[in-house]
Structure formats: structure tokens, C-alpha cells
Design a protein that fits this description.
Elements: E1 5-6, E2 11-12, E3 15-22, H1 31-47, E4 51-58, E5 61-67, H2 74-92, H3 94-97, E6 107-116, H4 121-129
Antiparallel strand pairs: 1-2, 3-5, 3-6, 4-5
Helix pairs in contact: 1-2
Length: 140
């Protein structure tokens, strides 16, 4: 069962899975960087009224699972996260990153995001397809 959030005009349950990769898929994310990225993500996502649920990854990418209210523009959130985290990571881990990047790079320009949910798409599709069968018709 979904837990619904509410704001002034809506009830919602919006969960997203974001994947961001390092520039040129360089394997440069250390455990310390990963820990710092999680701190940065929690701060930025909370500023956007989002909640980071889980974050993990490998040396060349991270996965973030988060929930967001409907008014959040995902592209702005993601751009903000990538810009701010890149700035902090490049500044705080300059020595480690200098062997991978000589320009101010950290994240690739691209990302992958998809919505998540507990109900399979086929179940939702069938539910919507059957809506006209449940319409109220006056008794004859």
C-alpha cells in the first residue's frame, strides 16, 4: 500500500530513481566522496522539499531513490544537484580528482530518471481500461 503525502491541493505518492554518471565514466568516486555526495544530496533534496530515501553506487555512478511533491521540476532539481555536488566534490577532493580530470568536470551531462511505484504498469493499464465499465448508469 502506498503512503500518500498531501499538500494544499493534492494527495500524491511520487517516487523517482535517478542515476548520474561521472564524466567519461571515470572510476573516481571513493568511499569518502560517496559519503560526502550523500550529505550534499540530502541537503539539496530537502531544500526542494524532497526526501532522499536511498543512495548507493559504484566508482563511476550513483543511484538515488527519492520522493518529491508534484510541484517540483525534476530537471531543475537534478541540474541543481549535479551542479552543486560537482562544485563541492571538485573543491574538496581536488587532489584525488586531478589524476582523472584536468578541466572542471565531475558529472556527465546526461542522466537517467524514471518513476517508480508498487503497482505494475499492466495492472494500472487494465484498471484504466475498465473504468468505463464501472460508470454509473441509471437503473432501467
Amino acid at each position: 500500500m502506498h503512503e500518500f503525502e498531501r499538500n494544499r491541493h493534492s494527495f500524491y505518492s511520487l517516487y523517482y530513481h535517478l542515476v548520474v554518471v561521472t564524466k567519461y565514466r571515470k572510476k573516481c568516486i571513493s568511499k569518502e566522496m560517496h559519503h560526502r555526495l550523500k550529505e550534499i544530496a540530502e541537503d539539496i533534496f530537502s531544500r526542494f522539499k524532497c526526501k532522499l530515501i536511498e543512495m548507493n553506487g559504484e566508482e563511476d555512478h550513483i543511484h538515488l531513490l527519492f520522493k518529491a511533491p508534484p510541484q517540483v521540476q525534476l530537471s531543475k532539481l537534478i541540474n541543481n544537484f549535479k551542479t552543486v555536488s560537482s562544485r563541492y566534490i571538485r573543491k574538496e577532493f581536488q587532489n584525488e580528482l586531478s589524476k582523472y580530470y584536468w578541466k572542471p568536470y565531475f558529472w556527465s551531462n546526461s542522466y537517467m530518471i524514471f518513476s517508480t511505484g508498487g503497482t505494475p504498469l499492466e495492472v494500472i493499464k487494465k484498471y484504466i481500461e475498465e473504468q468505463d465499465k464501472h460508470s454509473l448508469t441509471p437503473p432501467s
